[in-house]
Amino acid sequence: MVFHFGRLRDNKTIVQQGYPMPELPEVEVCRLSLLPALAGQRVTGVRTSTKDLRQPLPAELHHTLAGRRIVDIIRRGKYLLFDCRRGRQRGWLIIHLGMSGNLHFVPAGQAPGRHDHFDLLTNRPILRFTDPRRFGLILWHDGADPEGHPLLAGLGIEPLSEEFSGKWLYRAFRQRSAPVKNVLMDARTIAGIGNIYASESLFRAGISPLRAANRVSLAACLRLAKTIRETLQEAISAGGSSIRDYRHSDGGSGCFQLEYAVYGREHQPCPRCGGTVRKIRQAGRSSYYCPGCQK
Ligand SMILES: [Zn+2]
């Protein structure tokens, strides 16, 4: 059983663009797929490669983790947090997939390849972290609260949480004169929406990515909060169904099969008005939008 988390329509896209970065829905689908297999499992060992990821792997990770029980896996932004306990001792294995990372199960005894950087050993198949570009992270945080880790402490609101709403967005946008797309992409404001879902949510809400955040009306913010939830939730559902399919398949790699209205569709017709989808650069990232539908 091997999962690759991409968002690709066809093999042609894979060849042309490589795997796009895992975003919130992919990480959530990853969490949902790992949890039933690993919850309650005791860690019997850890194997790490000598290469550094975005940060070096923690020293002594084997001694830190061996013997601990994984009681839960939660997600914060694009971080996966494994709640690992030994008696009353609590600590968190923190994994970020970076730009090209993926977690998958391989049979016990299968030797790691050159892009495999971390194995978590339990009585289940090996959980293996593969990351060709090595922008991912494997970290450890001691204590009961993972938010105490510096990388998590500054993260913004969870877009799928109860607290996230149109009113919340409206308040958050008041002080920001940057383009609304850039504010949506700022993880210190909202955790992990990502480029694809920011473009798609703005299209569905009829808001131009170029509009200054503090010039988005309350009514538009209410629409936007709804479309952000919808696009993320739809992607999670699609990923969940692809996992169910692949579980019954030959174990080959699988990708999300999602169609986007504007993302990656420069010069193609807008599905709503038939106008032409435009691509621009904002804060170093591509934004796609329909100038006819998005004001
Ligand atoms: Zn349009």
Describe the structure.
This protein has 295 residues and is an alpha+beta fold. The protein has 2 domains: 11-153, N-terminal domain of MutM-like DNA repair proteins (Alpha-Beta Barrel); 166-289, Helicase, Ruva Protein, domain 3 (Orthogonal Bundle). Helices cover 29% and strands 20% of the residues. The longest helix is centred in the last third of the chain and has 30 residues, at 218-247. The radius of gyration is 20 Å and the shape is elongated. Zinc ion (ZN) is lined by residues 270, 272-273, 275, 290, 292-293.
Topology:
Layout: H1 11-17, H2 24-38, E1 45-48, H3 61-65, E2 69-76, E3 79-86, E4 89-96, E5 102-106, E6 116-121, E7 126-130, E8 137-142, H4 150-153, H5 166-174, H6 180-184, H7 194-205, H8 218-247, E9 278-282, E10 285-289
Antiparallel strand pairs: 1-6, 2-3, 3-4, 4-8, 5-7, 6-7, 9-10
Helix pairs in contact: 2-8, 5-8, 7-8
Order of helices and strands: HHEHEEEEEEEHHHHHEE
**Which small compounds were modeled alongside the protein?**
zinc ion
If you compute it from the alpha carbons, what radius of gyration comes out, rounded to the nearest whole angstrom? 20 Å
Q: What is the CATH superfamily classification of the largest domain?
A: MutM-like, N-terminal
Number of strands: 10
User: How many discrete domains?
Assistant: 2
What's the total helix number?
Answer: 8
Gross morphology is elongated
Uncertain spans: 1-19, 245-255
| Mean pLDDT over all positions | 88
Q: State the CATH class of the largest domain.
A: Alpha Beta
- As laid out across the biggest beta sheet, the strand order is 1-6-7-5
